[in-house]
Design a protein that fits this description.
Length: 101
């Protein structure tokens, strides 16, 4: 059975970013993933940042830190703490934003 192609559909940013891990030519996907997570968080598109974060297979400390920071920057401290606790890398620092005043 072949792939059905819809001729009038155009991919959005999320579609393109979500297909990046499947492209063998992109050996540095972790770097692209990190940059995308950071960009989406800074733009307030947290749901897109989460989708990219979840698609990165071998997350490094920068990826974990970008996502934790994104949650904090967008006022989602409980999610930031939870993700920090789940982090497999131990070089991530959690800053209590209450102390930054």
């Amino acid at each position: 059975m072949g792939i059905h192609i819809e001729r009038n559909l155009k991919p959005d940013e999320s579609t393109i970013v979500s297909t990046l891990p499947d492209c063998p030519a992109l050996k540095n996907f972790v770097k692209i993933g990190n940059a995308s997570v950071d960009m989406f968080c800074k733009c307030g598109c947290l749901y897109k940042a989460i989708a990219v974060f979840n698609s990165v297979r071998n997350k490094n400390v920068k990826c974990w830190t970008s996502m934790v920071t994104g949650y904090v920057s967008n006022g989602r401290l409980d999610e930031a703490r939870e993700l920090f606790e789940r982090s497999r890398v131990k070089d991530v620092s959690f800053v209590d934003t209450g102390q930054l005043r």
